[in-house]
């Protein structure tokens, strides 16, 4: 934990006892203001606790990594790379959307679902969606292509 989080964790119970009925958000806001007003000497015990906590975490992490098999280590590395790639892809997509990237055209299935949703069998969304999916699956490939062309306004 950071020095600030150590401070909040230690001071929160005392502050909430002294101020019953105050919302948690307001307590944290007040503690943040108090933290900003503390001098470097007053923050020092919390920074020391934070450093000790960080060192303890590093030792525990080294001990954990030492007991892993090479296959487990590789699996963790692969998982980490996948998470990073996913975050990058999300960031890239947000950037493209903010730049005005056009949306992909709707599929024939999507158009069919939106056009026929109101007349679908069922009394809730789930049953209507299932009914429409079943109707779509009963169509042959040529019927689907004809419907796609009709709904999108294309000529064959």
* Total discrete domains: 3
Work out the helicity level: over 70%
Strand content: under 5%
CATH class of the largest domain: Mainly Alpha
Write the layout of secondary structure elements.
Elements: H1 3-18, H2 24-37, H3 40-66, H4 70-98, H5 108-116, H6 125-138, H7 141-152
Organism: Labeo rohita (Indian major carp)
Protein name: Transcription factor mitochondrial
Keywords: DNA-binding, Nucleus
Q: How would you sum up this structure in a few lines?
A:
It contains 7 helices and no strands.
What does this structure look like?
The protein is mostly helical. It has three domains: 1-67, Orthogonal Bundle (DNA Binding (I), subunit A); 69-103; 108-152, no CATH class. It has seven helices and no strands. The protein has helices at 3-18, 24-37, 40-66, 70-98, 108-116, 125-138, 141-152. Helix 1 packs across helix 3 (40-66).
Provide keyphrases for this structure.
156 residues; mainly alpha; DNA Binding (I), subunit A; elongated; 3 domains
């Amino acid at each position: 934990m950071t020095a600030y989080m150590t401070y909040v964790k230690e001071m929160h119970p005392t502050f909430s006892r002294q101020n019953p009925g105050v919302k948690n958000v307001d307590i944290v806001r007040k503690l943040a203001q108090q933290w900003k007003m503390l001098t470097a000497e007053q923050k020092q015990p919390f920074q020391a606790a934070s450093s000790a906590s960080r060192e303890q975490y590093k030792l525990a992490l080294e001990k954990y990594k030492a007991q892993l098999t090479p296959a487990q280590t590789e699996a963790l590395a692969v998982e980490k790379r996948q998470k990073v790639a996913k975050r990058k892809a999300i960031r890239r997509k947000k950037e493209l959307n903010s730049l005005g990237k056009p949306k992909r055209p709707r599929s024939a299935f999507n158009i069919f679902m939106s056009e026929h949703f109101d007349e679908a069998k069922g009394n809730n969304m789930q049953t209507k969606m299932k009914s429409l999916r079943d109707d779509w699956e009963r169509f042959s490939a040529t019927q689907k292509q004809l419907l796609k062309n009709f709904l999108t306004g294309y000529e064959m």
